[in-house]
Write a structure and sequence with these properties.
Blueprint lengths: L3 H4 L2 H23 L5 H23 L8 H23 L7 H33 L9 H20 L5 H16 L11 H14 L6 H63 L1
């Protein structure tokens, strides 16, 4: 289910399978010749790693005609799996002995794990954002939250002027004022927000019989504001997770690329020493 959209891209799948079998055949031939393939595998990994890192630059330079972002995203996913395959063929899966190779090995594993986590988060959470109402721009959601809070304050001030509006005012002060005052944040109860929302709607319905007709209309508008506020919190928290995940993934990539360049220079330094 998660990878259904990925599997729809037949061209990258077929190309990857052809390249995999061609690489396996070539490695077998080189193995029969007792040839050293580390040079080819290593440089292939370096080129692919820097190509993968260019995906972030492509997202920032969207004005240039460099292809669709969705196509780059698919290439980034398949390139990630190819990086894993080349890394295993080149370095193996055992823990290396030298510190720089240990840092390179550890960075590659962290990139793989965080990449898979990010892929799962994107595939699971992104469709749910659209289900929870109109999708909003992340940076503008705090403004929508402030506007919703102002509407709730205006509504409750009108209810406070009526004696029969006291139950609504009391419930707002005891239960809703905290909800309208906060801004959705990272980790805002993403999986139980619906239960809390239903609880508030049920309690608002319970006090409806104590209100006159005018305050009952205000209660209905208050319920819409509560629902809208929960949707805003959901979207803000979900988008925050999707944004802040990259704040961990991307720095590890650049750190690993620096270690990779150091690894290449050290290998060539040893080759030069051997020639002497």
């Amino acid at each position: 289910m998660v990878f259904r959209k990925i599997l729809k891209h037949k061209t990258p799948i077929v190309s990857s399978l052809i390249a995999y079998f061609a690489l396996s055949y070539w490695l077998q031939l080189q193995h029969n010749k007792l040839a050293n393939v580390d040079f080819v595998l290593g440089w292939s990994l370096v080129v692919l790693a820097f190509f993968m890192s260019s995906y972030k630059l492509r997202k920032k330079i969207s004005v240039l005609p460099l292809g669709k972002a969705s196509s780059w995203h698919v290439l980034h996913i398949y390139g990630g799996f190819w990086c894993v395959a080349l890394f295993v063929l080149h370095a193996g899966v055992s823990w290396p002995s030298s510190p720089i190779n240990q840092a390179l090995w550890l960075g590659s594993v962290i990139i793989l794990i965080s990449g898979i986590i990010g892929l799962l988060l994107t595939k699971f959470l992104t469709p749910k954002i659209s289900v929870q109402g109109e999708r909003l721009i992340y940076d503008r959601i705090p403004g929508h939250i402030s506007l919703t809070r102002e509407h709730s304050i205006q509504l409750i001030l009108k209810a406070a002027k009526s004696p029969s509006g006291k139950p609504l005012v009391d419930y707002y002060n005891q239960n809703l004022i905290a909800i309208f005052s906060r801004c959705g944040h990272l980790g805002f109860k993403l999986f139980i927000h619906r239960k809390q929302l239903n609880k508030h709607i049920h309690e608002l319905n319970a006090i409806q019989r104590y209100l006159d007709s005018e305050n009952q209309k205000r209660l209905q508008r208050m319920k819409k504001l509560v629902i809208h506020k929960y949707i805003l919190d959901w979207q803000y928290s979900t988008l925050a997770i999707l944004r802040q995940w990259t704040l961990f993934h991307v720095p590890v990539i650049w750190f690993t690329l620096i270690i990779l360049l150091a690894h290449v220079m050290i290998q060539y330094a040893f080759e030069i020493v051997k020639l002497w």
